[in-house]
Amino acid sequence: MKTLVTTVTERGQVSIPADVRKRMRLSPGRRILWEAVSDRECRVRVSEDVRAPGAVAMLGDARRFRKLRRTSAWLKELREGER
Questions:
Q1: Domain that holds residue 54
Q2: Per the domain annotation, does 56 fall within a domain?
């Protein structure tokens, strides 16, 4: 693979070249691990830890004890309680 160059922004962000993203099957939300090897070199790895993003991830252990329901089911239950 040829050497690809990116630039660090003022906010410390770096873009991953499209060729690399496609080859490594990187998608939004995927975690990247950075390991400093020396003063001028670092190792970048894709995290093996793939967890569900968003609200499902926030449930944590609670999802083991509760059945997941759609928002429409929750709203229906809440509206029935108003009668």
A1: 18-81
A2: yes
Number of domain units in the chain: 1
Task: Report how far residue 16's alpha carbon sits from residue 27's, in angstroms, rounded to the nearest whole number.
Answer: 11
Q: 3-class DSSP state for residue 58?
A: helix
Torsion of CA 27, 4, 15, 28, to 10 degrees: 0
Cα–Cα distance list, 52 to 18, 44, 68 (Å): 23, 22, 14
Q: What is the pLDDT of residues 33-66, one digit of tens each?
A: 999 999 999 999 998 865 556 666 666 656 566 6
Domain membership flag for residue 70: yes
Give the global pTM: 0.51
Contacts of 34 (CB under 8 A, 6+ apart): 42, 43, 44
* pLDDT-derived band at 70, boundaries 50, 70, 90: confident
Average pLDDT of the chain, as a whole number? 82
